[in-house]
Design a protein that fits this description.
By secondary structure, this protein is α+β, with helices and mostly antiparallel strands. The chain is 31% helix and 32% strand. The chain has five helices and eight strands. It has helices at residues 11-23, 30-41, 69-73, 93-106, 123-131; strands at 3-7, 45-52, 55-63, 78-84, 111-117, 135-143, 146-147, 160-167. Strands 1-2-3-4-5-8-6-7 form an eight-stranded mixed β-sheet, sandwiched between helices. A hairpin with a 2-residue loop joins strand 2 (45-52) and strand 3 (55-63). The protein is globular, with a radius of gyration of 16 Å.
Length: 171
């Protein structure tokens, strides 16, 4: 299988991305796609579309201005909203996307970050990130980007996250 990666540029790729998300029941409001497109054009984000043998297989973003305060305050770009469609999982797509983001980030910084959910659905992602050298940032578990306090009760959903960082080496 040939894996290629393209940056989001132009209406054609944006429409293909929207249609693929709809087909795979990944729900995002129209404003999400518009914001991502604008942020790509203004240099605040890089959106990558991964193709397997010419078919769209996954999409993710590198956000230079993370919503997570520690990353934002320390200039750590964040890999965000990594989606590989089910029929393409376990075929190297996520690794290829992450590899490209690491290459892009290495041009301007020595660290990159990512957040990962904590329940079973995120198990494969947790393993990929650890194998690629991502380690916890030392700030503990976050809920809606706010640190949890010992004894606090929270819902185990997509907003319960552990943030990880990777040292990219000297720039």
């Amino acid at each position: 299988m040939e894996i290629t990666v393209k940056r989001l540029e132009g209406m054609e790729l944006k429409i293909a991305w929207q249609q693929a998300f709809a087909q795979h029941q990944i729900h995002r409001p129209e404003a999400y796609f518009d914001r991502c497109d604008l942020e790509n054009r203004t240099g605040k984000r890089v959106t990558l579309l991964a193709y397997a043998d010419g078919e769209l297989a996954g999409v993710s973003h590198l956000k230079y201005d993370s919503d997570y305060p520690f990353f934002r305050e320390n200039g750590i770009p964040e890999i965000n909203d990594l989606n590989v469609f089910p029929e393409y999982q376990r075929q190297g797509i996520a690794n290829r996307i992450i590899e490209e983001f690491e290459h892009i980030a290495r041009e301007t910084t020595h660290r990159i970050g990512i957040g990962v959910g904590l329940y079973k659905d995120y198990g494969a992602a947790q393993r990929i990130y650890c194998r690629r050298g991502y380690i916890p940032d030392g700030h503990g578990i976050m809920y809606h980007n706010v640190p949890l306090v010992p004894g606090e009760m929270v819902r185990a959903d997509d907003d319960l996250v552990l943030y990880l960082v990777k040292e990219l080496g000297i720039i």
